């Protein structure tokens, strides 16, 4: 008997097998049953339905397997089914799901969405829904919610089983939410009576499904009643019936009842009307019921009912009136004395929900809120009790926030006690408690204290009222800096930071001592809180201002120090990073004299030869100047203080190159941020913003000439261009607030400078003294300087042009028009930039000038094309410029021209067609022009993909496919990019018509083109593979598999050599949202083989470039890092002699310098080199040999291998005699000592290891040409071992 799961021997060869890919072709050809079912799937049964309760019951029994057909009935039944198959198939459309699938009411879509075929309850629901739907349709109903409500209520009274009752109740629960309220109000009496009867009958039953859904239906019914209905006793009686189930022992019933009660109290429809009462009429009875149940079972050991009622109160407590809230709160506080952990936790949750809801004073008065806070202090958990303490802190936080919201002074009066208690929690050994207490106090400071500090006013130690409360709170937090809290100093510093931000402006008199303590802590050696102290002091600087902070903790730097310790110099970076919204006059009065003193001190020390000390003082004065941008951020006294600072700033810009960037940044900050909206701690500014702006603008006539002259100076050799760029940015910023008359004057002078650049000061300085006969070198230098001067002036003109009036712009246009045809490309570019700035003005004088000179501008631009640089003559040629900016602007111009055609065209398709006609001639020009034209068309296709007509897109695709036959790679590359974009943007239906054309054009590419663009072609195939026929799909699958195998093989080889893994790139590119992502085929991807071969060398060079060495000073002299020339000591090559690597010739050298050459090593090295170089050829030769083709190269390799084998054969001559004929000792064969003398195989020898026959391994065994030979040796070894073992068994 054959084994299970396997065919007998010889049978498998006789069976028919499927061809590959055709295993699903065995579906039957006859489909009459399926056709019949498909034809009636969406139709309703015309005759009487066979769906009855008995039929559903029989179906369920058949599904569960309880009913079986007898053996004698089976053949006959099967035959009957064969005869009446069409009829049964036609009637099979009337299943128990027909009513569900045909139901047109969206209310029951939930039933179909969550259908489970294995659930008996779901089947029952579907059966009832189908039956009810059938009844409604038979009576001509429209399947409305009201009809379903009436039918289901009638069905609920008729059903008897618990399963059917649960199904009806579930459907009623769904439909009641959509039944109109007037219907439910009118039918309230009958409906509620039916529900109450079912609740009474099902209260003690074992099934919970029906009762749960009936409770939900009753809650929905009560929620739909109006306010008048709640004045009747019957309504409250029905509600009390629902309320009584909130303490049911079964969780599902209890949760359904609690959810229903909450929905009635919170979500009754009349509570959202215009005349809604403050509280629900049933709130009083609900609160009394909860209190009675808690008092009834509060003393029990389990307290289960108490927990259930506390859970209900957590949701309902914010909905009760104030009297009931007070009673419930007293009850909660009483049950908390039971010391029951769960009861206490639930009571805390109830209080938290009450405060978090932020109820109105009608629900929770401020006095009651304060009383609850005072009472909760009697229930403070231990510091070591983690979870209760966390809950208590959270409840107290919400309680104080709500109390301050209701009554500010009363709430602030309770905060000092809580701050003291919460600060004590910082001593807890649990980090969670420390974190919770810190976050709690921070939230109270932000929510309760900060919004009211403006009304509280100044906070002093002798103040009274709310100011006194703030002082007490700060003293409680300040106590955290004592050693007792040292483990929590990081949290204390966070609290101080928030306290400074919230109250620093008004409460700084009581914070001075704390600032001194922070500075002392900052000076502690090895302190881990340095960064936290800096943040806290920075918050104090931001809120109090640097004047107050430096008065409390002086800088202690005046230039007369005996030592250079400067213990508080760390304050300078802190002030720089946080100063804002302060007096600019303080910088003028305090910091400017200090900076001047320190600069003078540095100069004196430099003259005295004290270089290090001079650098230190110079650094300090530079740090003081870096404070200026912060002081210029929304200062409060610009109108009064800037005039005293302006002269100093002008001098610093012109005479102090080291301060130029900082001062320019300060001016830009003052203009852009000097009159922004005030921060949260600033109430009013000293003067309105118009006065500040006018004051700064008044000094434009002084600052702008200085900045103009600085920008006109050339950059010295070795200097960076950063200061020059900063000057230009400052000019542009200052011009935004400069008066137009002043701008016009500057623009007129600049125009004169453009016409006569020789008037420049620095140009005349470089002129040759003998002007009559200048040398060629001096002439060239003079021309370069003249060009530089004109370029600088043109930059200034570009900045001035947008702010001039129309008359000045007209004059400027006449001035720069000749330079549009200048042969100097830099000057020509600047002239175009001037026109760009003027034409880019959306409104104002620039826009008016463009409107009035539009024709002249067009003529000028067209005429200037003759003398422009070659790429600029046609925008299409610029699409392949080397400059990224030129390419970007070219594509932007193409798109803008397209939008212009759309604005003036009759319709988008025709307008774009007229535009494309202007680009088509480029497709028949030179190679570069053809490539650029295709790129332009590609960009336009992507930008206007939704506006181009289908015929236009198809025409473009056909023409570009013809260009794929070009022999130029640039044209083919652009054409493939166009096809890729077309595949992405075109509709699939239209693209499918041209797939054959595209594939045919690609198929005609030459081998060289295919090899060069293999990555682009692969990505293109991946995009269109879904549109290709089946045979192409198989080719693509094979290609992907071959590439995956090749990539895996390469990765394994690389891992074996380098012993490291590299990430592999994804072979498929996704569709991008932009054209740059779609055309993201880089040259690196196309030449990946070349890059891979050069990868190791580039990595080595990159590692070498990333190294840097620091050349130390000569002798014992230390390296001075403050030296300006210290950057020259950072070297890219290792300093010192002997860093060059000796060249390895492959030979060892003896001690006396002689070369040691060994033939064996040389031959092995040469052999390895040959094998490595010829590995690929040998592999290909083996492959060709397998298919029966042998090349001459392969034959030569075989001949060489045969020659090698012949050379390895032992000689036939037998040695004997003396002299040269003496026998020479042969090299011992491994394992020869174990060979038997009289038999085959090996023998064991006493006292020695057991013999093992093996093949010696050497690197010559790695030769792929000898792979088969080596395999044969191993096979022979195994066969010999097997024969030996068989002989041993037989002998035994």
From TrEMBL:
Composition-biased stretches, type Acidic residues, lie in 1057-1067, 1075-1090, 1176-1185
Tell me which residues make up the RRP12 N-terminal HEAT domain. Answer: 110-357
Q: Give the span(s) annotated as Disordered.
A: 1-47, 64-86, 1052-1242
Q: Please note every region of biased composition (Basic and acidic residues).
A: 1091-1100, 1164-1175
Instruction: List the record's Gene Ontology CC terms alphabetically.
Output: nucleus
Q: Which UniProt keywords apply?
A: Nucleus
**Main location per the UniProt record:** nucleus
Q: Name one Pfam family in it.
A: HEAT_RRP12_N
Nucleus is among the record's keywords: yes
Top-level taxonomic group: Eukaryota
Q: Which InterPro entries match?
A: ARM-like, ARM-type_fold, HEAT_RRP12, HEAT_RRP12_N, RRP12
> Localized where?
Nucleus
Provide the RRP12 HEAT domain boundaries.
428-713
Q: What family is this protein classified in?
A: Belongs to the RRP12 family.
**The name this protein goes by in its record:** Uncharacterized protein
Organism annotation: Balaenoptera physalus (Fin whale)
């Amino acid at each position: 008997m054959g084994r299970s799961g396997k065919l007998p021997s010889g049978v498998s060869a006789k069976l028919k097998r499927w061809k590959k890919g055709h295993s699903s072709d065995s579906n039957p050809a006859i489909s009459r049953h399926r056709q019949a079912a498909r034809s009636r799937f969406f139709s309703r049964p015309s005759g009487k339905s066979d769906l009855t309760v008995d039929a559903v019951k029989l179906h369920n029994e058949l599904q569960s397997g309880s009913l079986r057909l007898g053996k004698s009935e089976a053949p006959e039944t099967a035959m009957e089914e064969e005869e009446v198959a069409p009829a049964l198939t036609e009637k099979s459309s009337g299943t128990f799901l027909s009513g569900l699938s045909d139901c047109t009411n969206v209310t029951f879509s939930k039933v179909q969405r969550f259908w489970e075929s294995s659930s008996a309850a779901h089947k029952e629901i579907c059966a009832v829904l189908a039956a009810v739907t059938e009844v409604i349709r038979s009576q001509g109903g429209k399947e409305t919610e009201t009809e379903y409500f009436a039918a289901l209520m009638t069905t609920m009274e008729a059903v008897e089983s618990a399963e059917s009752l649960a199904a009806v109740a579930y459907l009623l629960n769904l439909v009641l939410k959509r039944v109109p309220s007037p219907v439910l109000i009118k039918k309230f009496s009958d409906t509620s009576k039916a529900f109450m009867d079912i609740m009474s009958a099902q209260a003690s039953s074992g099934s919970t499904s029906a009762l749960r859904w009936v409770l939900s239906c009753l809650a929905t019914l009560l929620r739909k009643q109006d306010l008048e209905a709640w004045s009747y006793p019957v309504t409250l009686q029905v509600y009390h019936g629902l309320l009584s189930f909130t303490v049911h022992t079964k969780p599902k019933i209890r949760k359904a009842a609690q959810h229903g009660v909450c929905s009635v109290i919170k979500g009754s429809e009349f509570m959202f009307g215009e005349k809604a009462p403050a509280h629900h009429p049933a709130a009083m009875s609900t609160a009394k019921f909860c209190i009675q149940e808690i008092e009834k079972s509060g003393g029990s050991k389990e307290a289960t009912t108490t927990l259930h009622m506390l859970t209900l109160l957590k949701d309902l407590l914010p909905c009760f009136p104030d009297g009931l809230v007070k009673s419930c709160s007293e009850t909660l506080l009483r049950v908390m004395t039971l010391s029951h952990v769960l009861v206490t936790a639930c009571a805390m949750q109830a209080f938290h929900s009450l405060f978090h809801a932020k109820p109105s004073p009608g629900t929770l008065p401020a006095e009651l809120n304060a009383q609850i806070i005072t009472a909760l202090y009697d229930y403070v958990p231990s510091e070591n009790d983690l979870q209760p303490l966390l809950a208590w802190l959270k409840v107290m936080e919400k309680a104080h926030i709500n109390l301050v919201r209701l009554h500010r002074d009363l709430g602030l009066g309770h905060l000092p006690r809580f701050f003291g208690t919460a600060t004590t929690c910082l001593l807890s050994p649990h980090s969670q408690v420390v974190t919770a207490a810190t976050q709690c106090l921070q939230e109270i400071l932000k929510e309760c204290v900060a919004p009211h500090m403006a009304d509280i006013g100044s906070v002093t130690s002798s103040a009274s009222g709310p100011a006194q409360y703030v002082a007490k709170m700060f003293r409680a937090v300040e106590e955290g800096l004592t050693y007792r809290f040292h483990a929590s100093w990081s949290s204390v510093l966070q609290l101080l930071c928030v306290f400074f931000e919230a109250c620093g402006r008004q409460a700084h008199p009581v914070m001075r001592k704390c600032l001194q303590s922070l500075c002392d802590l900052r000076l502690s050696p090895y302190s881990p809180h340095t960064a936290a102290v800096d943040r806290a002091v920075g918050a104090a600087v931001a809120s109090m201002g640097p004047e107050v902070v430096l008065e409390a903790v002086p800088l202690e730097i005046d230039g007369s120090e005996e030592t250079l310790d400067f213990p508080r110099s760390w304050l300078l970076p802190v002030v720089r990073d946080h100063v804002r919204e302060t007096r600019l006059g303080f910088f003028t009065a305090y910091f400017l004299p200090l900076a001047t003193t320190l600069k003078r001190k540095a100069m004196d020390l430099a003259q005295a030869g004290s270089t290090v000390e001079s650098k230190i003082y110079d650094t300090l004065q530079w740090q003081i100047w870096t404070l200026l941008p912060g002081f210029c951020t929304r200062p409060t006294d610009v109108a009064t203080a800037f005039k005293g600072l302006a002269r100093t700033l002008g001098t610093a810009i012109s005479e102090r190159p080291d301060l130029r960037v900082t001062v320019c940044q300060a001016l830009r900050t003052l203009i852009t941020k000097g009159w922004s909206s005030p921060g949260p701690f600033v109430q009013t500014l000293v003067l309105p913003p118009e006065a500040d702006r006018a004051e700064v603008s008044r000094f434009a006539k002084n600052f702008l000439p200085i900045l103009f002259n600085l920008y006109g100076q050339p950059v010295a050799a070795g200097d960076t261009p950063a200061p020059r760029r900063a000057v230009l940015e400052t000019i542009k910023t200052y011009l935004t607030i400069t008066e137009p008359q002043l701008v016009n004057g500057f623009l007129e002078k600049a125009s004169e400078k453009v016409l006569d650049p020789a008037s420049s000061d620095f140009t005349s300085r470089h002129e040759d003294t003998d002007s009559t006969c200048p040398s060629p070198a001096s002439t060239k230098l003079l021309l370069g300087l003249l060009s530089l001067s004109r370029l600088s002036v043109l930059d200034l003109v570009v900045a001035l042009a947008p702010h001039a009036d129309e008359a000045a712009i007209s004059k400027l246009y006449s001035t720069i028009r000749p330079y549009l045809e200048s042969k100097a490309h830099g000057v020509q570019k600047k002239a175009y930039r001037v026109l760009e700035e003027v034409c880019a003005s959306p409104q104002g004088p620039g826009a008016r000038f463009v409107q009035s000179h539009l024709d002249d501008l067009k003529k000028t631009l067209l005429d200037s094309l003759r003398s422009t640089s070659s790429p600029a003559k046609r925008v299409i040629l610029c699409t392949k410029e080397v400059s990224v900016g030129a390419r970007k602007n070219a594509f932007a111009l193409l798109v803008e021209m397209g939008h212009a055609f759309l604005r003036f065209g009759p319709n988008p398709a025709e307008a774009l067609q007229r535009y494309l006609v202007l680009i088509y001639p480029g497709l028949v020009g030179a190679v570069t022009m053809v490539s650029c034209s295709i790129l332009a068309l590609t960009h336009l296709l992507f930008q206007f993909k939704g506006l181009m007509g289908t015929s236009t897109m198809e025409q473009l695709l056909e023409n570009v496919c013809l260009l794929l036959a070009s022999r130029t790679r640039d044209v083919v590359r652009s054409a493939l990019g166009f096809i890729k974009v077309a595949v992405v943007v075109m509709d699939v239906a239209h693209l499918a018509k041209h797939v054959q054309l595209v594939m045919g054009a690609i198929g005609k590419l030459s081998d060289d083109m295919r090899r060069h663009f293999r990555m682009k072609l692969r990505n293109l195939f991946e995009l269109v593979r879904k549109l290709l026929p089946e045979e192409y799909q198989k080719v693509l699958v094979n290609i992907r598999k071959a590439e995956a195998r090749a990539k895996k093989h390469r990765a394994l080889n690389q891992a074996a050599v380098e012993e490291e893994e590299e990430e592999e790139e994804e072979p498929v590119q996704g569709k991008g949202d932009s054209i740059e992502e779609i055309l993201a085929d880089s040259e690196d991807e196309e030449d990946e083989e070349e890059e891979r071969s050069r990868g190791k060398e580039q990595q080595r060079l990159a590692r070498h470039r990333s190294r840097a060495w620091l050349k130390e000073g000569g002798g014992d002299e230390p390296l001075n890092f403050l030296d300006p020339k210290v950057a020259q000591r950072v070297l890219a090559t290792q300093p010192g002699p002997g860093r060059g690597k000796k060249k390895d010739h492959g030979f060892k050298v003896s001690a006396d310098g002689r070369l040691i050459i060994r033939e064996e090593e040389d031959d092995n090295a040469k052999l390895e080199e040959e094998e490595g170089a010829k590995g690929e050829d040998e592999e290909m030769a083996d492959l060709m040999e397998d298919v029966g083709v042998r090349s001459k190269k392969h034959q030569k390799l075989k001949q060489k291998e045969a020659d090698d084998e012949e050379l390895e054969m032992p000689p036939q001559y037998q040695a004997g005699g003396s002299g040269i004929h003496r026998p020479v000792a042969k090299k011992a064969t491994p394992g020869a000592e174990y060979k038997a003398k009289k038999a085959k195989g090996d023998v064991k020898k006493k006292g020695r290891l057991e013999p093992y026959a093996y093949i010696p391994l050497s690197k010559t065994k790695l030769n792929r040409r000898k792979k088969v030979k080596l395999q044969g040796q191993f096979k022979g070894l195994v066969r010999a071992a097997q024969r030996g073992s068989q002989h041993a068994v037989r002998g035994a």
